[in-house]
Amino acid sequence: NGNNDVGVFLRNSVAYNHKIGPVGFGAAYSASEMQGAVYSLGLTYSGPVTLSAAYQSTNSPGTSTRLSKLATVGASYTFGDVTGKINYLRGVNKNTPLSETNVGVIGLGVDWKTASNNTAMASVYMAKDKNNTTDKTTTFILSDEYALSKRTTLYGQLAFANAKSGATLLTTVVSGGTLANATTTLLNVGIRHSF
Hints:
The chain has strands spanning 13-20, 23-30, 38-45, 49-59, 66-79, 82-93, 101-115, 118-129, 132-147, 152-163, 182-193. It is mainly β. An 11-stranded antiparallel β-sheet has the order 1-2-3-4-5-6-7-8-9-10-11, with no helix packed on it. The two termini are 27 Å apart. The mean pLDDT is 88.
């Protein structure tokens, strides 16, 4: 979706990933005719502190004109059964009906491994569009993942999205269903199986 500052999905893409010791590198290219060419790069370092950075650029369909770009950096640190996380994402998008958007998202979270097969998580995301000061959303998420086996996991997520008066879907980290000038509660439960 070329008109989304937060969500990322590449169709018809080719990706390459490689790891050398604690350093991981990834690159992807998508030549989709519907959304234009997409270039993505990512880098991670796994040590006492895990660090990550990624960049993505999307061109206008059939041209070399840059339509949107995403950049993100993050870090996490594990102490015992608890992992603290911080992330910052910036998305600039020229593919909007009214004007260019410039969305920034700060994410803070903590994962707590309560058992060998269970992890409880809590996070908060604060997002705003620098080009539209009324477009702000703060989202709190509580979730839990319970592994039934190596390949099958039960999960549940509870999200509270507090959207300001001018908030749009550009500043929410949930997949929709939020209303401006309201706090929306969303519940998601399911099962994930890896083949």
